[in-house]
């Protein structure tokens, strides 16, 4: 899937503020990532806590440049929402993947790796590797 375009990244959270803040953090820590399409998909369309399939699908299409879309989700029903959209088969762009990774650390790793021009497999691997980061 080498299109010369960056992998898109969607961060799905139960909270719009959390999703937006993690996008901001990942971009900030991945200096030079301005060209990486990253979108938050947090909360419900009416601003409550929860997960909106419509917001997730819209964010995925917004970041899709043809190189695939990596989706990271924070908790249970956010994961289930993404899985349901993927199971439908036509709700998300081709090449969209749910990535099993820690939300914050995985998001940073995914954005940094995408900014380096890596493909979807490498972006997914970097995000998953964040599970091995130890803090003590």
Task: Give a structural overview.
- With 136 residues, the chain is an alpha/beta fold.
- It contains 5 helices and 4 strands.
- The protein has helices at 16-29, 53-63, 76-88, 103-115, 120-129; strands at 8-13, 38-42, 69-73, 96-98.
- Strands 2-1-3-4 form a 4-stranded parallel sheet, sandwiched between helices.
- The termini are far apart.
Helix content: 40-55%
Overall 3D geometry?
Answer: globular
Low-confidence stretches: none
Tell me about the largest β-sheet: 4 strands, parallel
Class by helix and strand content? alpha/beta
Q: Reading side by side through the largest sheet, how are the strands ordered?
A: 2-1-3-4
Rg, rounded, reads: 13 Å
The helix/strand series, from N terminus to C terminus, equals EHEHEHEHH
Mean pLDDT: 94
Beta-strand percentage?
Answer: 5-15%
Number of E-type strands:
4
- Work out the helix count: 5
Q: End-to-end span in angstroms? A: 38 Å
What's this, in brief?
The protein is of the alpha/beta class and 136 residues long.
Write the layout of secondary structure elements.
Layout: E1 8-13, H1 16-29, E2 38-42, H2 53-63, E3 69-73, H3 76-88, E4 96-98, H4 103-115, H5 120-129
Parallel strand pairs: 1-2, 1-3, 3-4
Any descriptors?
136 residues; single chain; alpha/beta; 5 helices; 4 strands
């Amino acid at each position: 899937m080498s299109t010369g375009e960056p992998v898109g990244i969607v961060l799905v959270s139960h909270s719009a503020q959390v999703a937006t803040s993690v996008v901001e953090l990942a971009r900030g820590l991945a200096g030079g990532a301005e060209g990486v399409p990253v979108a938050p998909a947090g909360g419900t369309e009416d601003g409550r806590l929860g997960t909106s399939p419509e917001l997730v699908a819209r964010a995925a299409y917004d970041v899709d440049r043809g190189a695939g879309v990596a989706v990271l989700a924070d908790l249970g029903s956010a994961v289930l929402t993404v899985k349901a959209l993927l199971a439908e088969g036509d709700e998300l762009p081709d090449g969209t993947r749910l990535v099993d990774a820690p939300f914050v650390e995985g998001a940073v790793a995914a954005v940094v790796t995408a900014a380096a021009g890596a493909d979807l497999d490498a972006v997914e691997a970097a995000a998953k590797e964040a599970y091995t980061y130890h803090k003590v």
